[in-house]
Amino acid sequence: MRAIRVHQHGGPEVLSFEEVALAAPGPGEALLRQTAVGVNFIDVYFRSGLYPAPAGLPLTLGSEGAGIVEAVGEGVTAVKPGDRVAYAGPMGAYAESRLVPADRLVPLPDGVDDRTAAAAMLKGMTVQYLLRQTFKVGPEHTILFHAAAGGVGLIAGQWARALGCRIIGTAGSDEKCALALENGYDEVINYRTENFAQRVRELTGGAGCDVVYDSIGKDTFPASLDCLKPRGLFVSFGNASGAVEAFNLGLLSQKGSLYATRPTLFSYVAKREDLLATAADLFGVIADGTVHIAINQDFPLAAAADAHRALESRATTGSTILLP
């Protein structure tokens, strides 16, 4: 089969489309013929070397996809050949076919198509744990969500609106602000033309937000802390502009006895029962129309470098997928 491989860290130009040998599934594994693959900013981190690859180089990027089970190894009971399934993790999704630990595969309900699943598994389950577990959002809360027009941000706006909270977003253009407003946000701040921390204080009458969800990193810290109420929660779950630099924990005290956390999806779905419950919650809000997954860009698998260029230039909105 063919896959996108990385033999050295660098820019999008290091992504190579090449033939790769694929073994038969071993014990606990399933062979998946992929029909769609999700693209996420974490893929950029592994390509550039910001995040070390678990198995070193060379590597195949990608942490989510969907497709058809073609064969299973010894002892597999979670799925069977012919099943439509999706997954978020482990790495290796930028490929026509791949082996996946069978206990990481989630059967797809009839109401969720393959493209939607590939675009939604990582981003949608991220929103699920952020809004339903890291901080349980409800009608009494005001939240700030950075990158409101991105794949995670658009899902978060719709889901948060359904939960009844007030959601403020940030985005980098008037067009992106308008898109976020169409997807559940109450107010959206163009951070290129406004001081978002000052504007949040104005919008909240000086009170601030209960929680800030930040996937931007360096460019939005420490100003994100100035958007919080006393004892509010800062949730850092990405580094699109670069990693947050080390800081004195005393800063949290100075700004109102704040909390800070750096969660990852994989900690929340490590157990299969938690994976299935998180995915079921996501599939439920997709199937009932609460959340629409906007796939605003798709690229052939061979053009993964173009997908990365679009993502890093912040030219994308919603979700991006690769089609094997």
UniProtKB/TrEMBL annotation:
SUPFAM superfamilies: GroES-like (SSF50129), NAD(P)-binding Rossmann-fold domains (SSF51735)
Keywords: NADP, Oxidoreductase
Domain of life: Bacteria
Pfam short name (any one): ADH_zinc_N
CDD domains membership: QOR2 (cd05286)
Domain Enoyl reductase (ER): 10-322
InterPro entries, sorted: ADH-like_C, ADH-like_N, ER, GroES-like_sf, NAD(P)-bd_dom_sf, QOR-like
NCBIfam families named among the record's database cross-references: PRK10754.1
Cited PANTHER family: QUINONE OXIDOREDUCTASE PIG3-RELATED, QUINONE OXIDOREDUCTASE-RELATED
Name this protein carries in UniProt: Quinone oxidoreductase
Organism: Methylobrevis albus
Organism lineage: Bacteria, Pseudomonadati, Pseudomonadota, Alphaproteobacteria, Hyphomicrobiales
